[in-house]
Amino acid sequence: MNNNQDHISDEFATRLKSFISKRVSNPQDAEDILQEVYCKIYRNINGLNDTGKLHAWIFQIARNAVHDHYRTNRREEPFAEPPEPEAVRADENDNKEIAGCLKVIINHLPDKDREAIELTEYKGLTQKELGQLLGLSHSGAKSRVQRAQQRLKEMLCECCSLELDRRGNVIDYKLKAKANPFCDLK
Predict the structure, then answer these.
(1) How far is CA 184 from CA 36, 98, 101, 135, in A?
(2) Which CDD domains does the UniProt record give (predicted)?
(3) What is the pLDDT of residue 141?
């Protein structure tokens, strides 16, 4: 199996690192998990009976390692109390502030768009369920949600410029000079 070990290192190093980095925000944690995955691969490679399933086996090890990382680093009460505004600033993440602004912007959307956003994003309906509820085809409901999301994005971009990190979190925003009736940020 030594040949397989060399093959694993060369072929999968970049793909494994990318796979893990997309699922873990902290680059140091991603590196630690990658090293842990390599250790598990080398420890258990001799137990792999079907080398045709090597890819699936390796990525299952990586998935499990990511899950283990989140399981061991879970906070005890993640939804106990909302963080203080200073704590949000300390994390360099403005998601909560922008989320508050989104609620105001949603109220300024046309009725059909507002209904689509509220039912799918806040009430948890799938697009298929939305279509059934509103008497639309699945593709019609999907289009309505996408159109509403696009309008919401456009209205938000009229209000401010956003800077996002690689995971889509708002790390900074700047208000635009143009005042909007739906912009609640200061």
Answers:
(1) 46, 9, 6, 34
(2) Sigma70_r4
(3) 92
Question: How deeply is 20 buried, as exposed, middle or buried, from its count of CB atoms within 10 A (0-12, 13-18, 19+)?
Answer: buried
Question: What is the span of the domain harbouring residue 109?
Answer: 85-175
114: tokens are: 């507002």
Instruction: Note the pTM of the prediction, 2 decimals.
Output: 0.46
Distance of CA 101 to the CA centre of its chain: 20
Return the residue matching tokens 């739906």.
182
Task: Write the CATH number for 9.
Answer: 1.10.1740.10
Buried b (16+ CB within 10 A) or exposed e, 24-50: beeeebbeebbebbbeebeeebeeeee
Q: What integer is the mean pLDDT of 108-120?
A: 89
What's the sign of the alpha-carbon dihedral 95, 84, 76, 28?
positive
**Which tokens belong to 143?**
């289009």
